[in-house]
Amino acid sequence: MNSIIKIKNIATVFLEEEINYSSLTKAIGEYKALLSELSNINLEEETARSNIHFETGKALGTTWAAMCVNDMIRTKMFVKGINAAVLLLQKKKKEPIHILYAGTGPYAALILPLLAIFTEKELQLTLLEINKASFDNMLSVMNALGFTKFIHTAEQTDASVYKIKNPSLINIMVTETMQHALVKEQQVPITINLMNQLSTETLLIPQNIILELALMDSEKFSTHLLNKNQADYYKLVGRIFELNTGSFVKFEKDVDAKIIFPEVSFELSKENMNDFDKLIILTTIQIFGNTYIKLNESGLTMPLIIEDISHKKSTDSLIRLWYEINNVPGIRFELINKTITE
Description:
The protein is α+β, with helices and mostly antiparallel strands. It has helices spanning 3-14, 21-38, 46-49, 62-67, 72-90, 132-144, 187-195, 218-227, 270-273, and strands at residues 52-54, 57-59, 97-102, 123-129, 151-156, 172-175, 203-205, 208-216, 234-243, 252-253, 259-260, 264-268, 278-288, 291-293, 304-308, 317-324, 330-335, 338-341. It has two domains: 3-208, Vaccinia Virus protein VP39 (Rossmann fold); 210-341, Distorted Sandwich (Hnrnp arginine n-methyltransferase1).
C-alpha cells in the first residue's frame, strides 16, 4: 500500500462523525509510523528536544511537537474541523481555499491527511514554523508525499510577529500552539497578530477557546479519571477569557503596544467552597462549527489547578483574574490580596 492510500485511509477515520476509539487508536498508530518513515530527523537528539523561548511564550522543540500527534482527540478534531471549514467555503467560492497554518511542527500533521483528499486546485497553503529542524523536516515530508504542489508559501519565522505578504489570499487561519488553559505557548499572540492582518471573513481555527474558573474536589476528580462516570467533581464559577474573532479585536493596548486583557472577578463564598479543595481553570475548544474538544478529552483540555483552597474555607473571598502575555503567558489572579502566577 503506497503512502497516499495510507493517508487517505487515516483521513477517513479522522473524519468519521462518531469516535470509535479502536479504529482511531489504530489510525493514529499508522499515522505516527508513516510520519516517522518519511522523516529524516532523530527525535532522540538533545537538540530536537530544545524549546525556543520568546518574550511572548515558548515554541516547542521538534520532539515535543512531534509527540502532539499522540493526542488522538486533538488530532482527529482539528483535521475534522479544518475539513468542515474547507467544505463550507467551497460552497461560496470556486477559487482554491487558502489556509495559513502557523506552527506546523515537523509534519504539518493537522493538515497533511486532507492533502490526500483534496487537490492543489482546491487547497493552497501558507506554512509557518519557527523551529528550523521542524521546518526542514516538514518540507521534506511534503516533498516525499508529492504535496509541495499545495504550498504557496513556506517560511521559517516567528508567527507572533510575522507580516503576511498577501493577506487577501487567506481564507482560513489555523494555529495549534497551545497547552491547557493557554499557558506557556504562543497561541494568543500568534492568533492576535495574524488575525488582525486578515479579513473579518477569514475563518479562525480553533474558532473559539474558552477558559472558565471552577472549584474542584480532587478526590472525586481522581475517581472520574479512573471510571469516567463521576460528573460532580467540579462546580463552575464563571467565564474568564475567550479567544475568537469577536473577542481579540476588543483587546486594548497600552502606550508600549502591550495588550491589556480584560479582568474579571468572582465572589467565592465559604459555603460554596466547603465541598471543594482546589481552584481550577477549565478549557473548552471549539475547533469549528459543531466540532469541539471538550473537558478532559485531550491534554489540551485537562483542568489546570491554580490554587489549593483546602485551608481557605473559613472566610468569603474575592478572586480577580486576567490573561497576560509575557515569557510565560497564562492566567494571573489575585486571591485575598495574594498574587499568584502559574
